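Sat 14:20. Reprocessing the chain from the morning session after the first attempt stalled halfway. Input below, unchanged.
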Amino acid sequence: MRRVGILGGTFDPPHIGHVILANEVRSALQLDEVRFMPNHTPPHKKKTESISNDERLKMLELSIAGEPYFKLEKIELQSPGPSYTYNTMKQLKEKEPDTEFFFIIGSDMIEYLPKWYRIEELVELVTFVGVKRPSYSSETPYPVILVDTPQIYLSSSMIRDKVKKGKSIKFLVLPAVQQYIEVNSLYES
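Finished this time. Tokens:
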């Protein structure tokens, strides 16, 4: 049985925290691969005025280029409406019945699990893997494997804000992503 990690998010833009986290979880749980799954419309976030799905995909491709254990999962971008993890994972399990899925979340989402759509059924489809984030609790009534990873306080919104203010994002995103943002004038005011 294949063991596949799923790291979902807006990835607007993807940053080094995403790839470090994916690598640490893959190594700790000996996963065959980790798939980066950009969501179409997250039900828990308001859509920002940001960038297109194609631009997010391109930056993800640049972020994982050359990493044999990292793949893109586009299923949520191909589904209209809000991206509910239950619906997505049900589809993936139907397509890949011989795969064990590990859904990777930060402590901010661990706290939010009781509010997830169809959470009782979702925990039957996936194994949740939690990683700590500063100032969030890892307490939950749901089964979550906690993986110790470097705690990096970094967010996509922080990066967008820096670009908007003309500040450097060097070392916060991979060099190819930084170049893509600069060449395409993304996130500028």
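Residues 104 and 124 are 15 Å apart (CA to CA).
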